[in-house]
Design brief:
Largest sheet: 4 strands, mixed
Order of helices and strands: EEHHHEEHEEHH
Number of strands: 6
Helix content: 25-40%
Radius of gyration: 17 Å
Strand content: 15-25%
Distance between the termini: 41 Å
Shape: globular
C-alpha cells in the first residue's frame, strides 16, 4: 500500500459544537449512540481498531459499508515505528483542534449557503512537525490552507474520498445524529508523507449557529488558534 496516498477516517464524526462533555465526540458508527448515553459501551472493530460500535448487532449491520474502509483504516500496520509515532501524533493533534477545524471548514466551504458543496470540495491543511514540544496541541504547525476540488486529487484519493462521502450520505439517510451532510478536511504532513482525512458531520442547527462574521477571515483565525495551541471550546 502506498502510505503517502492513504486516507484514514477517525472513529468519530466531528461537529463544531463539541462541549465540555468529551464523551459526545465518540459514537456508534451505525446508530449514532454516544458513549455518554447511560448504558452505552462502545467497542472498536477488532480488525481496524478505529470504527466503534455499541453492539454486535450494530457492527453486523454496518459491515457491508464498513468493509470498504476497514483496510484503509489499518494503514498503520504498514508504517515504520517512527512513521507510526507521527501518525498517532497527527490523530491526537487533529482531535485536540476539532472545534476550530470544524468551524473553519464550515466557513471556508460556505456550507451555510450551500451544504452540498461538501460533496465537491475539501479543506486541505499543510502541516509540519515541530522539533520539540511537550503539548499535543502544538505538535504541528500549519504552513498553508487550501480549498481543493475532489477532482484535484489522485485517482486513488478521489476513490477514497467518494467512498467516505457515500458512507456519510448513508448515515445521514439513516438519521444518525440528525446530520444533513458531512464535510471533509485533509491534514497533510510534509507534502503528503501522511494523509489524515477528518469527516465533519453537520446539522442545520449547527450551520445556523456558526458566526458568519468570521467568514471574511476564517483562514487567519484558524491558523492563529492552531499555531498558538488554543483549544478552548468555541462558544457559538
Amino acid at each position: 500500500m502506498d502510505v503517502a496516498s492513504s486516507l484514514r477516517a477517525p472513529s468519530y464524526m466531528w461537529s463544531p459544537s463539541v462541549d465540555s462533555n468529551k464523551d459526545m465526540s465518540l459514537q456508534c458508527q451505525w446508530c449514532g449512540a454516544s458513549r455518554a448515553t447511560p448504558g452505552v459501551t462502545l467497542h472498536k472493530c477488532a480488525a481496524c481498531k478505529i470504527e466503534m460500535y455499541c453492539s454486535s448487532e450494530c457492527q453486523r449491520k454496518a459491515w457491508p459499508t464498513h468493509k470498504g474502509v476497514c483496510q484503509t483504516n489499518r494503514y498503520e500496520e504498514h508504517l515504520s515505528p517512527d512513521q507510526s509515532k507521527v501518525a498517532k501524533s497527527l490523530f491526537q493533534f487533529s482531535h485536540k483542534h476539532r472545534s476550530t477545524i470544524s468551524e473553519a471548514a464550515i466557513l471556508a466551504l460556505g456550507l451555510q449557503e450551500d451544504p452540498t458543496r461538501a460533496q465537491r470540495d475539501v479543506l486541505v491543511l499543510s502541516l509540519h512537525p515541530r522539533a520539540s514540544t511537550p503539548r499535543l496541541e502544538t505538535a504541528f504547525v500549519v504552513l498553508d490552507v487550501q480549498i481543493k476540488s475532489i477532482g484535484d486529487f489522485t485517482p486513488e484519493q478521489q476513490e477514497d474520498l467518494r467512498l467516505h462521502i457515500k458512507l456519510s450520505a448513508e448515515e445521514a439517510a439513516r438519521g444518525v445524529g440528525e446530520m444533513i451532510g458531512t464535510a471533509f478536511v485533509m491534514l497533510n504532513v510534509d507534502m503528503r508523507r501522511f494523509g489524515n482525512v477528518a469527516p465533519i458531520g453537520f446539522t442545520q442547527a449547527l450551520l445556523d449557529r456558526v458566526p458568519k462574521r468570521r467568514a471574511a477571515y476564517w483562514r487567519e483565525w484558524m491558523m492563529t488558534r492552531i499555531n498558538e495551541g488554543i483549544t478552548t471550546v468555541i462558544s457559538l
